[in-house]
Structures are given as C-alpha cells and as structure tokens.
Amino acid sequence: MRIYLLVFFGANQAGWIIPIVANKNPLVEFMVLFSCPTITTLEQLRFQFYTSGRTDF
Questions:
Q1: Residue 57, pLDDT above cutoff 70
Q2: DSSP letters spanning the chain
Q3: Alpha carbon distance 52, 37 (integer Å)
Q4: Any bridge partners for residue 28, and if so which?
C-alpha cells in the first residue's frame, strides 16, 4: 500500500491559486505559503487599473 502526501508550496500570487486548488482536491494535506497577498485579486486589479502602473499615484 502506497501512502502519498500531497503538499503545495508557493509564494506571492500562488497564495491565491493554491488554496483554490487545495479546496478542490481532498488529497491535499496542507499548504505552505510565503509572502502571500493580503488583498483579493479584484482589489489588486482595480488598483492596477486606476494607477496604470504610475508610481506617483
């Protein structure tokens, strides 16, 4: 009998993707996330849209 441990490791924007994938797969044991986003993708995209990448916003 084989025992598998499914773990996801990620940083930055992976903090949005890994929890979604882990939620859909019951084999995921745990996640390790570093430097993850503290805002939603919508908030980040909205900020990016309104500032258009300007640094003097």
A1: no
A2: -----EEEEEETTHHHHHHHHHHH-TTEEEEEEES--SS-HHHHHHHHHHHTT-S--
A3: 19
A4: 6
Residues 6+ apart with CB under 8 A from 44: 37
Structure tokens at 38: 């503290």
45 within 8 A of 39, measured Cβ to Cβ: no
Span 5-37, pLDDT tens digits: 888 888 887 888 888 888 998 888 888 888 777
Structure tokens at 42: 């919508």
Which single residue is written with the structure tokens 């924007």?
13
